[in-house]
């Protein structure tokens, strides 16, 4: 987990200091479990680790804005983020294992 935390800190850059280590570790753990469950796997490949990192960055960057992607004060215009990027969704779908009962 330390390696992925270091990678997350690198991706966050100067913003990394805005979050505690506990917050970042929790976000990593949650997203690892999300990816494992969605893809129906027990271990992550390098590309899925990349997805976890990108999901963490997106989640942490959204913190306190609750999905707000754009805002205009004068015209009262608001825009909201709908989940994760198309790139992340595409990678997850390509690595998804569907079990047949």
What does this structure look like?
The protein is mostly helical. It has one domain (2-94). The protein contains 4 helices and 2 strands. A hairpin with a 4-residue loop joins strand 1 (68-72) and strand 2 (77-80). The protein is elongated. The mean pLDDT is 85.
Brief account:
The chain is mostly helical. The protein has helices at residues 2-12, 21-39, 46-62, 86-94, and strands at residues 68-72, 77-80.
List the topology elements.
Blueprint: H1 2-12, H2 21-39, H3 46-62, E1 68-72, E2 77-80, H4 86-94
Helix pairs in contact: 1-3, 2-3
Backbone shape = elongated
Strand order of the largest sheet: 1-2
Q: Can you give the mean pLDDT?
A: 85
Give the structural class.
mainly alpha
Instruction: Please give the count of helices.
Output: 4
Estimated helix fraction? 55-70%
Low-pLDDT parts are none
The count of β-strands is: 2
Number of domains: 1
Largest sheet: 2 strands, antiparallel
Strand content: 5-15%
Radius of gyration from CA coordinates: 15 Å
The end-to-end distance, rounded to whole angstroms, is: 33 Å
What is the string of helix and strand elements? HHHEEH
